[in-house]
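Researcher: Please translate sequence to structure tokens.
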Amino acid sequence: MSTLNHPQPLRNEVRRIVLERVLRGELAPGEDINETELAEQLGISRTPLREALLRLEHERLVGSSQGRGFYVWPLSAREAYDLYDVVAGLEGFGLRTVKTVPEELIEELRRLNERLATLDEDPRAMQDVAERWHETLLGAIDDVPLDELLDLARNRLHRYVLFGFEFAVAYGTDDRDRVVRAHRSIADALERGEMERAATLLEAHRRRGMALLERWLEEAHAAEATNQGRM
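Model: Translation complete:
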């Protein structure tokens, strides 16, 4: 369980912990947030928790409504399409600003990818390693405003990445292997100094991530139609 870790300002630490729970699915999409219960778990008053929730609401990871209070922002197909497209564009643009990638960074990308290749039944571990791979790659970018935009967009995309790996494990798809192959091709291009090709491969890789959610939507629609037919 996440714990408070000072000396950061308390509201920042609370935001970090709540964000982590949202991204890891411990606070599920659409779930109501019980402020009293969560504040007790964290050993704090409701004031810093509310401040943290308001910040997350601004980032569209949390929502609120009168009479309901705060809730985790639900997943939606429209948001998924937009986020995959936005993150692909931002990451590709960022990588094109980099002239060369240090050898040690490429080695770390390969190490993380080898780790991902060994994970079969743990969606959260897959999510963590896959997103660490992207964070490591984009660590070569020296552009603070772009980094900030990417952080906001990737935080929102993170939940869809987790859902995609959960779907892959549950349905026995080969999407984990597809991700591993894509990462390997990008690292190969970086090692050869082919930055434009690496950026193009990165964009295509991110956008292909949406294909898994398209299959999920098909499954969800089919199940809904079946349930309606039984009524």
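Researcher: Any highlights?
Model: The chain has a mean pLDDT of 86.
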